[in-house]
Amino acid sequence: MKVSEIIGILDAELLTGEENLDMDIEHACGSDLMSDVMAFVKENVVLLTGLVNPQVVRTAEMMDIKVIVFVRGKVPDEKLVQFAKEKGITILITKHPMFIACGKLYCAGITGRGVWD
Amino acid sequence: MSNSIIRQSYVIPADDFSLAGEASSCVKKMLNQLGVPPQTVKKVAIAMYEAEINAVIHAGGGTADVEIGGGKIIVTISDEGPGIPDLELAMQEGYSTAPDSIREMGFGAGMGLPNIKRYADKLDIKTEVGKGTIVEITVFL
User: Fold this and answer.
1) Does A90 contact chain B (CB < 8 Å)?
2) A30, A50, B107, B127: which could join B133 in a potential S-S bond, CB 3.0 to 4.6 Å?
3) Domain ranges of chain A
4) How far is A109 from chain B (nearest CA, A)?
5) Are B29 and B82 in contact (CB under 8 A)?
6) Structural domains in chain B, sorted by start
Protein backbone atom coordinates (compact mmCIF):
# COMPACT_ATOMS: atom_id res chain seq x y z
CA MET A 1 0.00 0.00 0.00
CA LYS A 2 1.29 3.41 -0.88
CA VAL A 3 1.82 6.10 1.74
CA SER A 4 -0.64 8.32 -0.14
CA GLU A 5 -3.33 5.63 0.38
CA ILE A 6 -2.55 5.52 4.11
CA ILE A 7 -3.24 9.26 4.28
CA GLY A 8 -6.71 8.64 2.83
CA ILE A 9 -7.52 5.66 5.05
CA LEU A 10 -6.51 7.47 8.25
CA ASP A 11 -7.89 10.90 7.25
CA ALA A 12 -4.36 11.97 7.98
CA GLU A 13 -2.52 15.19 7.39
CA LEU A 14 0.98 15.24 5.93
CA LEU A 15 3.41 17.47 7.84
CA THR A 16 6.61 16.58 6.00
CA GLY A 17 8.08 13.96 3.67
CA GLU A 18 6.19 14.31 0.38
CA GLU A 19 9.04 12.40 -1.26
CA ASN A 20 7.85 9.13 0.31
CA LEU A 21 4.22 9.28 -0.87
CA ASP A 22 4.75 6.61 -3.52
CA MET A 23 6.65 4.29 -1.17
CA ASP A 24 5.13 0.86 -0.63
CA ILE A 25 4.27 -0.06 2.96
CA GLU A 26 3.80 -3.72 3.87
CA HIS A 27 4.09 -3.80 7.64
CA ALA A 28 2.91 -1.73 10.56
CA CYS A 29 3.98 -1.33 14.14
CA GLY A 30 1.79 0.44 16.70
CA SER A 31 3.55 1.25 19.96
CA ASP A 32 4.37 3.99 22.43
CA LEU A 33 7.44 2.11 23.61
CA MET A 34 10.43 2.77 21.41
CA SER A 35 12.36 -0.25 22.69
CA ASP A 36 9.46 -2.44 21.62
CA VAL A 37 9.62 -0.84 18.20
CA MET A 38 13.30 -1.69 18.05
CA ALA A 39 12.58 -5.34 18.72
CA PHE A 40 10.57 -5.24 15.49
CA VAL A 41 12.55 -6.13 12.40
CA LYS A 42 10.96 -5.64 9.01
CA GLU A 43 11.35 -3.48 5.95
CA ASN A 44 8.78 -1.02 4.56
CA VAL A 45 7.25 -0.28 7.91
CA VAL A 46 4.87 2.43 9.06
CA LEU A 47 5.15 3.31 12.74
CA LEU A 48 2.00 4.43 14.56
CA THR A 49 2.54 6.03 17.94
CA GLY A 50 0.97 8.33 20.49
CA LEU A 51 4.38 9.31 21.80
CA VAL A 52 5.58 12.65 20.50
CA ASN A 53 9.25 13.41 21.09
CA PRO A 54 12.52 13.54 19.12
CA GLN A 55 13.42 9.98 20.12
CA VAL A 56 10.53 8.67 18.01
CA VAL A 57 12.23 10.15 14.95
CA ARG A 58 15.58 8.86 16.17
CA THR A 59 14.16 5.36 16.61
CA ALA A 60 12.67 5.47 13.12
CA GLU A 61 16.02 6.59 11.76
CA MET A 62 17.85 3.63 13.32
CA MET A 63 15.18 1.21 12.11
CA ASP A 64 15.06 2.62 8.56
CA ILE A 65 11.38 3.43 9.14
CA LYS A 66 10.36 6.12 6.68
CA VAL A 67 6.81 6.87 7.84
CA ILE A 68 5.57 7.88 11.30
CA VAL A 69 1.89 8.42 12.11
CA PHE A 70 1.09 10.33 15.30
CA VAL A 71 -2.32 9.12 16.48
CA ARG A 72 -5.15 10.53 18.59
CA GLY A 73 -4.67 14.08 17.38
CA LYS A 74 -1.18 14.63 18.74
CA VAL A 75 0.64 17.38 16.92
CA PRO A 76 4.44 17.46 17.00
CA ASP A 77 6.24 20.79 17.30
CA GLU A 78 8.06 22.43 14.42
CA LYS A 79 11.44 21.27 15.76
CA LEU A 80 10.41 17.61 15.53
CA VAL A 81 8.99 18.08 12.05
CA GLN A 82 12.22 19.74 10.93
CA PHE A 83 14.26 16.92 12.48
CA ALA A 84 12.20 14.35 10.56
CA LYS A 85 12.56 16.34 7.37
CA GLU A 86 16.35 16.28 7.71
CA LYS A 87 16.20 12.50 8.09
CA GLY A 88 13.88 12.03 5.10
CA ILE A 89 11.11 10.69 7.32
CA THR A 90 7.44 11.34 6.55
CA ILE A 91 5.27 12.63 9.40
CA LEU A 92 1.52 12.09 9.34
CA ILE A 93 -1.02 13.07 11.98
CA THR A 94 -4.45 11.56 12.46
CA LYS A 95 -7.27 12.21 14.91
CA HIS A 96 -8.02 8.50 15.17
CA PRO A 97 -6.87 6.78 18.35
CA MET A 98 -4.26 4.03 18.12
CA PHE A 99 -6.66 1.06 18.05
CA ILE A 100 -8.87 2.53 15.35
CA ALA A 101 -5.92 3.70 13.24
CA CYS A 102 -4.29 0.25 13.40
CA GLY A 103 -7.63 -1.43 12.71
CA LYS A 104 -8.29 0.70 9.64
CA LEU A 105 -4.88 -0.11 8.17
CA TYR A 106 -5.26 -3.80 8.98
CA CYS A 107 -8.66 -3.95 7.28
CA ALA A 108 -7.17 -2.19 4.28
CA GLY A 109 -4.58 -4.92 3.90
CA ILE A 110 -1.54 -4.04 5.98
CA THR A 111 -1.40 -7.31 7.86
CA GLY A 112 2.35 -7.82 8.00
CA ARG A 113 3.72 -8.20 11.48
CA GLY A 114 7.18 -7.84 12.89
CA VAL A 115 9.44 -10.67 13.87
CA TRP A 116 9.97 -11.56 17.48
CA ASP A 117 12.54 -14.27 17.93
CA MET B 1 36.40 -1.56 1.94
CA SER B 2 40.13 -1.40 2.54
CA ASN B 3 41.93 -3.49 5.12
CA SER B 4 42.74 -0.55 7.34
CA ILE B 5 40.99 -0.11 10.65
CA ILE B 6 38.85 2.97 11.14
CA ARG B 7 38.46 4.36 14.65
CA GLN B 8 36.06 7.05 15.82
CA SER B 9 35.17 8.37 19.25
CA TYR B 10 32.11 10.27 20.38
CA VAL B 11 31.05 11.95 23.58
CA ILE B 12 27.59 10.99 24.85
CA PRO B 13 26.31 14.12 26.58
CA ALA B 14 24.59 13.89 29.95
CA ASP B 15 21.11 15.06 30.85
CA ASP B 16 19.92 15.97 27.40
CA PHE B 17 17.62 13.22 26.37
CA SER B 18 16.64 15.00 23.17
CA LEU B 19 20.25 14.75 21.95
CA ALA B 20 20.61 11.06 22.80
CA GLY B 21 21.30 9.05 19.68
CA GLU B 22 23.50 11.60 17.94
CA ALA B 23 26.58 9.32 18.12
CA SER B 24 24.59 6.35 16.77
CA SER B 25 23.26 8.53 13.98
CA CYS B 26 26.82 9.56 12.99
CA VAL B 27 27.98 5.95 13.03
CA LYS B 28 25.02 4.80 10.95
CA LYS B 29 25.81 7.46 8.35
CA MET B 30 29.48 6.49 8.30
CA LEU B 31 28.72 2.76 7.87
CA ASN B 32 26.34 3.53 5.01
CA GLN B 33 29.02 5.64 3.34
CA LEU B 34 31.52 2.79 3.73
CA GLY B 35 29.14 0.50 1.88
CA VAL B 36 28.36 -1.82 4.80
CA PRO B 37 25.27 -3.95 3.98
CA PRO B 38 22.02 -2.28 5.21
CA GLN B 39 21.03 -5.17 7.50
CA THR B 40 24.42 -5.01 9.22
CA VAL B 41 24.18 -1.22 9.56
CA LYS B 42 20.76 -1.62 11.17
CA LYS B 43 22.04 -4.16 13.70
CA VAL B 44 24.89 -1.85 14.73
CA ALA B 45 22.68 1.26 14.78
CA ILE B 46 19.96 -0.23 16.98
CA ALA B 47 22.32 -1.93 19.42
CA MET B 48 24.45 1.21 19.74
CA TYR B 49 21.43 3.49 20.10
CA GLU B 50 20.01 1.41 22.94
CA ALA B 51 23.40 1.45 24.68
CA GLU B 52 23.69 5.19 24.15
CA ILE B 53 20.21 5.74 25.61
CA ASN B 54 21.20 3.59 28.61
CA ALA B 55 24.29 5.72 29.21
CA VAL B 56 22.15 8.88 29.14
CA ILE B 57 19.40 7.44 31.37
CA HIS B 58 21.48 5.68 33.96
CA ALA B 59 24.99 7.07 33.93
CA GLY B 60 24.98 10.77 33.05
CA GLY B 61 26.44 10.13 29.62
CA GLY B 62 29.76 8.60 28.64
CA THR B 63 31.78 7.86 25.56
CA ALA B 64 31.31 5.76 22.45
CA ASP B 65 34.27 4.26 20.60
CA VAL B 66 33.79 2.61 17.26
CA GLU B 67 36.28 0.39 15.48
CA ILE B 68 35.62 -0.87 11.96
CA GLY B 69 37.87 -3.38 10.27
CA GLY B 70 39.24 -6.89 10.46
CA GLY B 71 35.86 -8.27 9.44
CA LYS B 72 33.91 -6.71 12.26
CA ILE B 73 32.51 -3.57 13.84
CA ILE B 74 33.11 -3.06 17.54
CA VAL B 75 31.15 -0.41 19.43
CA THR B 76 32.24 0.28 22.99
CA ILE B 77 30.02 2.43 25.19
CA SER B 78 31.72 3.38 28.45
CA ASP B 79 30.31 5.28 31.37
CA GLU B 80 31.27 6.21 34.90
CA GLY B 81 27.78 5.67 36.25
CA PRO B 82 26.52 3.61 39.16
CA GLY B 83 27.21 0.22 37.56
CA ILE B 84 24.75 -2.69 37.36
CA PRO B 85 24.38 -4.61 40.66
CA ASP B 86 22.72 -7.68 39.13
CA LEU B 87 23.59 -8.08 35.46
CA GLU B 88 21.61 -11.29 35.02
CA LEU B 89 18.47 -9.53 36.25
CA ALA B 90 19.17 -6.49 34.06
CA MET B 91 19.37 -8.74 31.00
CA GLN B 92 15.80 -9.97 31.53
CA GLU B 93 13.13 -8.51 29.28
CA GLY B 94 10.91 -6.18 31.25
CA TYR B 95 13.28 -5.50 34.11
CA SER B 96 14.05 -1.80 34.45
CA THR B 97 15.21 0.70 37.04
CA ALA B 98 14.49 3.72 34.83
CA PRO B 99 12.48 6.55 36.41
CA ASP B 100 8.98 7.48 35.24
CA SER B 101 10.32 10.55 33.43
CA ILE B 102 12.18 8.21 31.08
CA ARG B 103 9.19 5.91 30.64
CA GLU B 104 7.19 8.91 29.52
CA MET B 105 9.76 9.37 26.78
CA GLY B 106 9.14 5.85 25.44
CA PHE B 107 12.06 4.08 27.05
CA GLY B 108 12.71 2.28 30.31
CA ALA B 109 10.52 -0.72 29.48
CA GLY B 110 13.30 -3.13 30.28
CA MET B 111 14.05 -3.92 26.65
CA GLY B 112 17.33 -2.04 26.18
CA LEU B 113 19.86 -4.69 27.12
CA PRO B 114 17.78 -7.55 25.64
CA ASN B 115 17.58 -5.59 22.38
CA ILE B 116 21.33 -5.02 22.37
CA LYS B 117 21.82 -8.76 22.85
CA ARG B 118 19.31 -9.48 20.08
CA TYR B 119 21.12 -7.38 17.48
CA ALA B 120 24.77 -7.85 18.52
CA ASP B 121 26.66 -10.88 17.26
CA LYS B 122 28.70 -10.73 20.45
CA LEU B 123 28.04 -8.77 23.61
CA ASP B 124 30.44 -8.22 26.47
CA ILE B 125 29.44 -6.18 29.51
CA LYS B 126 31.88 -5.23 32.25
CA THR B 127 30.29 -3.47 35.17
CA GLU B 128 31.29 -2.49 38.67
CA VAL B 129 28.98 -0.92 41.22
CA GLY B 130 30.08 2.63 41.94
CA LYS B 131 32.60 2.66 39.09
CA GLY B 132 30.73 2.32 35.81
CA THR B 133 29.87 0.09 32.92
CA ILE B 134 31.53 -0.84 29.64
CA VAL B 135 29.30 -2.36 26.98
CA GLU B 136 31.15 -3.89 24.03
CA ILE B 137 29.00 -4.69 21.02
CA THR B 138 30.48 -6.70 18.15
CA VAL B 139 28.80 -7.14 14.79
CA PHE B 140 30.57 -9.23 12.16
CA LEU B 141 30.83 -7.96 8.61
Assistant:
1) no
2) B127
3) 3-107
4) 26
5) no
6) 6-140 (3.30.565.10)
Is residue B46 exposed (0-12), middle (13-18) or buried (19+ Cβ within 10 Å)?
buried
* Count of positions (residues) in chain B: 141
pLDDT range class, residue A77, cuts 50, 70, 90: very high
- For domain A3-107, which architecture applies? 3-Layer(aba) Sandwich (3.40)
Chain A touched by B106 (CB under 8 Å): yes
Q: Is B121 exposed, middle or buried (0-12, 13-18, 19+ CB in 10 A)?
A: middle
- Give the pLDDT confidence of B83-99 residue by residue, as tens digits: 999 999 999 999 999 88
Q: What is the ipTM of this complex?
A: 0.87
Flag if B109 and A51 touch (Cβ within 8 Å). no
Q: Write the DSSP symbol of residue B5.
A: P
**Contact (CB<8Å) B106/A59:** yes
Which chain B residue has the Cα nearest residue A63? Answer: B42
* Nearest one of A83, A43, A86 to A63, comparing CA atoms: A43
> Considering only CA atoms, which of B134, B112, B96 is closest in space to residue B46?
B112
What are the chain A neighbours of B18 within 8 Å (beta carbons)? Answer: 53-55
CA distance B97 to chain A (A): 15
- Among A42, A22, A39, A97, CA closest to B46: A39
pTM comes to 0.91
Task: Assess A86–B contact: CB distance below 8 Å, yes or no.
Answer: no
